[in-house]
Structure formats: structure tokens, C-alpha cells
TrEMBL record:
Limits of the Transcription regulator AsnC/Lrp ligand binding domain: 6-76
Source species of the chain: Lentzea aerocolonigenes
Gene3D superfamilies attached to this UniProt entry: 3.30.70.920
InterPro entries referenced in this protein's UniProt entry, alphabetically: Dimeric_a/b-barrel (IPR011008), Tscrpt_reg_AsnC/Lrp_C (IPR019887)
Record protein name field: AsnC family transcriptional regulator
Spans traversing the lipid bilayer: none
Pfam families reported in the protein's UniProt record: AsnC_trans_reg (PF01037)
Amino acid sequence: MVTAIVLIQAAAERIPEAAQEIADIDGVTEVYSCAGDVDLIALVRVSKHEDLAALVPGKISKVAGVLNTDTHIAFRSYSKRDDEAAFAIGLDDAQ
């Protein structure tokens, strides 16, 4: 599984519509509107790099209002929630 974070600059008047259109694309798991240098952040999860190579320029970049994308491929995931779940395994049985 390949996870990527896509930073998206969008035309201000199209942000809500572009966000929803991007969220509806297969492989896009979440889209956030945000403040700062980018307007939208999309989380993408696909089976292989070739799928990502097709999805970003072929679908996300073609959504009306998308001006620019910057894609970052994730190597590892770190989460406090994952750590807590791992340490909690078997606790119910021990009591």
C-alpha cells in the first residue's frame, strides 16, 4: 500500500466544490481544507506507485479549480493511537 499526502492549491471560489470532487475520487481517503500555503490536503492510499502516478496528474489535477499539486509519499506511519493499541493487547485477558 502506498500512502501519499497531496498538497493542493485551488482557486478560492472553488475550494468547497474541488474538495468534494477530490474526496469522491477512488484512492482518496480524506480531504482537508486548511489555512496556510495550501488550500487543501488530500490523503491518498493506493496499491502501487503506478496508481499514484495516474491518480494525481490524471484525476486530482484535472478537477476544476485545482491550480497546483505537490505530492509527498509517506514511508512510515507513526501514531500515538497505534502505540496505545499495541500495549493494550491482552489486557482484558489478564484481568
